[in-house]
Amino acid sequence: MAELSVAQRAVLAQMLERVPDRVLTILSGAVAQMPGERAVALSIMLADESTDRRRRAIAFAPLLPMFQRRPDGVESLTFPAGVLPRLWKAASSREPELLLALDDYRPIEENPKMCAVANRICVAAAAAVRDKPEVVWPSNGGDEAARIKGLGELALCFDLAAMARRGLLNLPDLILRPTGDQLAELRLLIRDCAEITVDGGPRMLEIMFAHLGDASLILRLVVHSSHAAAKEGFLSESEMAGFVNRLIAEVEARITRIASYKPGAKADPGPGVRTDIAWCAETLGELDATLKLDPEGEWGKQAREARDRINGTLSRSLRSLDKALDRLMPSKSVKTTGRMTRQAPDLEAEAPPLEAVQAAIVLLTLLGAIRTAAKVFGCESLRYQLVQSVTERVTVYVDQVVEAVNAGDAPDQRKSLALVETLAKCLLLIDATDAARTARRRAAAAGARPSSAATQERSPRAA
Q1: Are 153 and 120 in contact, with CB atoms under 8 Å apart?
Q2: 3-class DSSP state for residue 73?
Q3: For bias kind Low complexity, which ranges apply (predicted)?
Q4: How much of the chain, in percent, has pLDDT values that exceed 70?
Q5: Residue 219 has pLDDT above 50, yes or no
Q6: 427, 436 Cβ separation under 8 angstroms
Q7: Residue 187: helix, strand or coil by DSSP?
Q8: Are 228 and 234 in contact (CB under 8 A)?
């Protein structure tokens, strides 16, 4: 079989540039087991692509996260993913003989030569952005003004790549408990960046922001960057104010999403609800702990309004929980003695519709999700009362259903026990684990007990 032609290699090379790293690894393993000259040629191309990406990850490490959007949705400085391979090709082709230095097995912080080569390639990348903008970031009929602005931002970021590489080594310590020397190094780094470009300080924090999984931790870096940055009056007037504004904007966006969760939704909202509530609580808590917010200042008012808004949203939603449980646990009045009656499970009623079950799940998920965040939002008292009330109500209802099943009063045992299982899952949503285990244990042991007369009739001695 003939080898790959030049045209085929060119097409495959373009395709491989767009393949994610995980898929590239799978392809490499699969093609390596295929026979034929073309398979061998393709395997070599895949190996070369993997090596190229590994080198790129080392050289562009300070800016690599900026070529994808933040998973938490917080606004940040990002660049199109398609720019990355073109920029790497343009930068690395200037001095290809240096690329072998990036194949050293030692970490870059322990290898001065590798670090110097990586920084040199970043300088070449900044020059490539300025000299070959159409090659690095071609205009495809989109927003030309945004493209030109992005090119300028990209070049300036690569101007700071060497200093960012050095500063990122202390990032884990800076967001935890930095020493005095580490704080001094950060402030010196911010000052040196400001001497390279006018907005060098905020731009360096922007680069560090891309490496933070928790967006609210950028507040600690902002505060550490200056002695007076913890005060709202000073910070709100500085160029660092954008980070706080972005976090507050994302809090408001997530609060709007929380308020949009309505009972009866088809999709399970659990993970989304829990993530949004936890994120808002952590971010507002970090704002309180890190910044000295003025209660009458703009940020202080926004934070307070955000708490009031989410507190009101959760309170209104959770107060409708009793009605949702009414549909999930149908009841009827039964006579006890004389004219006295009590509420008992209506086991002859139709099974709760899916919409009713989903409505209860949404509200119970909300109740469970605010367990750790209720104190931040100011609704801990309401949460505790509701958890106790729901747990007691569901437990009593389950006991009555199991007693009816054991007594043989349930028209359909399977349906009744399925309802108990549904209620046990509901208890798990509010972290009432012990009550849920008890309900399942009782349901597992439940079953209609034969009467004494029927037992005697089937007894051999009675015969």
Answers
A1: no
A2: coil
A3: 444-454
A4: 91
A5: yes
A6: yes
A7: helix
A8: yes
Q: Which pLDDT tens digit goes with each residue over 37-62? A: 778 888 888 888 888 889 999 999 99
How far, in Å, are 322, 399, 420, 428, 436 from residue 433 at the CA level? 20, 16, 14, 6, 5
- Report the C-alpha dihedral over residues 220, 224, 229, 231, rounded to 10 degrees: 60
Q: In whole angstroms, give the CA distance from residue 145 to residue 143.
A: 6
Q: How far apart are CA 367 and CA 256, in angstroms?
A: 17
Cβ-count burial 408-442 (b if 16+ within 10 Å, e if not): eebeebeebbebbebbbebbbbbebeebbebbbeb
Q: pTM for this one?
A: 0.77
Average pLDDT over all residues of the chain: 84
Query: Given a cut of 80, is residue 336 above it in pLDDT?
Result: no
In this structure, which amino acid lies at residue 208?
Answer: M
Scanning the structure block, which residue is given the tokens 């704080």?
183
Helix (H, G, I), strand (E, B) or coil at 440: helix
3-state secondary structure of 154: helix
Q: Retrieve residue 377's tokens.
A: 């939002």
DSSP letter for 373, please. Answer: T
278 token code pair: 């936890």
| Residues 347 and 412: beta-carbon distance below 8 Å | yes
